[in-house]
């Protein structure tokens, strides 16, 4: 049947045959050149692609309706000619179903030329404000704007439930040579699930990709990104934020509780607690225990529970396992209003190879190195970021600021820094590529760390960054302008390894390993150290802290209490992994709750009480924290009593503040009338004794304190006889009260 003249006129608006063929095949790279409204010799051509529709009508003005003609050569394509360019809507019918929608191809570009320039230059400080999915009003219409960096892609399309995951329907606009693709989709809203359908440089379709700047994700094992609106949140933590800089000073008491949110405590049915539940249960508990900060093991979205978050894919998305972004914000607010800072374990060293993630994102090694000697972590079966590429640096550096700014987090603990610093990390000869000077240092990663620390401290000088770094790389916690990496603090892995080796020795052999407890002082002030007893020490067959201790049950608890007394009185900020504060008996299992029932046992409850009191003493006694990073804050009184495994040292605050003396007895032999030198005359109060009955000990001690006499001892002009209970730490403070 011959077409009418009207139909023939409308069909003149259709794209060329090769374009229509590519459109139907889902291979049209530049759909904005052909779909929507464009100039035509006879007016304005309108082409709309609605697969499955029987009829399509264009609506202009208030009610003007123009039927569109189906193009038989391209099923789903409808065309017409309009006399003038004007806003329009589309009504489609399929059988008895009719729907009206705004055509995404009628809308202009959203990102500005400045946005594109700074993204291309790798200098957009808040990259997330441009890329990702943003709920906006564009040209008077509500919807969601999507933008993604995929410079080597031949085509990028948006897919989701809203278009039945049909990659032909929402092909994106390529923004010049920037590598950015964008589309505004009217009518989409918070909660919609989406991914990117990308064709690589060779035109082949890749596995569907999650958004590298997605603010939300589906609950694993599903892998879609989810539209979230970050705007409009009202924060209620102004008092904390105003005073935050005082919480992170090197002279401040910092005691960190490291927690895995999924396994701290479980709800009935073994369900992980929500952010809302944690905002009361966890926050109240940590505040009551006297810690100053919570460190969250990675809550960036990750596909595999067993990675504990250390193989993240959604670097801009707090995991949905516990709730929405705003519910996570409420958790942070609750912490701040209880006087607690919140640190995030941040993972810029590597990423997993899951097909929906960054690996081969646009069909090339976009985020990682192509050479496996640089781009593949053999230990973790992961890819290594290419921080020699400015766009990748910008993406990750912006991510650091994103968490600090959008979620009011107080700092970042940066994971696996050692693996970033050296090109030969965990590699044999021939398995790594030397730097430009033939050495092993990774210049690009070092520059990235320095740049990121300078950047976030420049934007938010009251936060803190902490490096997990296990080598002797110099200046990790020194300012960049002095040649350092610029971190605020560094984990003291050497102290942790040495002292735990000592504690695991049978006390009868400890005299042969005396130096393991003293060696840390030789370098204690070379960095701003945190003393870490982290999750790494209580997994993979290492057992719990309690199980590491030698001896019978009573001796195990006594050893652990003495070690905590040593740790809290040693120079350096403190970090303790959850469960170890009440002597968790079994090693950590990420699939279940901590063993809270153990607190029914007085021995476990006693350790918990001790940690609470240590935190209180540490926070309220300047000598125990004021000079954590200065040699003047520490002095040995007796560091060489190997035969008795006794250590005596003093801690000093400012000159006008009471000094502290700590005596450790690391054998199960009680030492009565043990003389120690003291740096000041008069009365010294026994502020804490790990053998106290309330901690589960035997109650042996010094009746509240001791008074000095004139016997010179340990290089001091005065001394006192003290009782050192078996396997104990005794902490004395000078000049407080009287006997």
Outline the structure in words:
By secondary structure, the protein is of the alpha+beta class. The chain is 21% helix and 25% strand. An 8-stranded parallel beta barrel has the order 16-19-22-26-27-28-29-30. The radius of gyration is 32 Å and the shape is elongated. Mean pLDDT is 96; it is low at 1-5.
Q: Give the biggest beta sheet.
A: 8 strands, parallel, barrel
Return the average pLDDT rounded to an integer.
96
Structural class comes to alpha+beta
Q: Count the DSSP helices.
A: 15
Terminal CA distance: 113 Å
Strand order of the largest sheet: 16-19-22-26-27-28-29-30
Helix content: 10-25%
What gyration radius follows from the Cα positions, in whole Å? 32 Å
* Strand residues, percent: 25-35%
**Which outline best applies?**
elongated
Number of strands: 38
User: Spans of 5+ residues with little confidence (pLDDT < 50)?
Assistant: 1-5
